[in-house]
Write a structure and sequence with these properties.
By secondary structure, the protein is mostly helical. The chain has one domain: Up-down Bundle (Bromodomain-like), CATH 1.20.1550. It has helices spanning 3-28, 35-57, 63-85, 110-132. The radius of gyration is 16 Å and the shape is elongated. Belongs to the DsbB family. BdbC subfamily.
Length: 141
């Protein structure tokens, strides 16, 4: 199997696990998501769908779209993690009922979990981009 499709499958698996994990936290563990959690979901949930469809269609051309979603989602995750770690230095107007500083799992914060997932997807998409170009470096223009 082509390395690009293995990477695409890996990215899809990460997105699917992250999506199902967030649903588990909110629907089974009953963790109420804060506003930043919702924004991160806005970027993760479509990744599970579009990467799955691209894998099914064997289409590596999804990489720029998935890379954009994962980078924006990763920035939101980093912002959320920063807010949790330094609540007095940086505040966002998170609306009730759940402030963005709530940590349901202090040992492995949910925004860190999301940041790792977005990072793995972004890294995979960069490698998929290289494979989609036939392994050739991008021409400097």
């Amino acid at each position: 199997m082509n390395r690009g499709f293995l990477l695409l499958g890996f990215a899809w698996t990460v997105a699917l696990v992250a999506t199902l994990g967030s649903l588990y936290y909110s629907e089974v563990r009953l963790f109420l998501p804060c506003e930043l959690c919702w924004y991160q979901r806005v970027f993760m949930y479509p990744l599970a769908v579009i990467l799955g469809l691209a894998l099914w269609r064997q289409d590596l051309r999804i990489w720029p779209h998935a890379l954009a979603l994962s980078l924006i989602g990763g920035l939101l995750s980093a912002l959320h993690l920063f807010q949790q770690r330094f609540p007095d230095l940086f505040t966002l107007a998170c609306k009730p009922p759940v402030p963005c500083t709530v940590e349901y799992i202090p040992e492995f914060p949910i925004p860190l979990q999301a940041l790792i997932a977005f990072g793995l997807i972004a890294g995979s998409m960069l490698l998929v981009a290289k494979e989609a170009r036939g392994g050739q470096p991008h021409p400097q223009g």
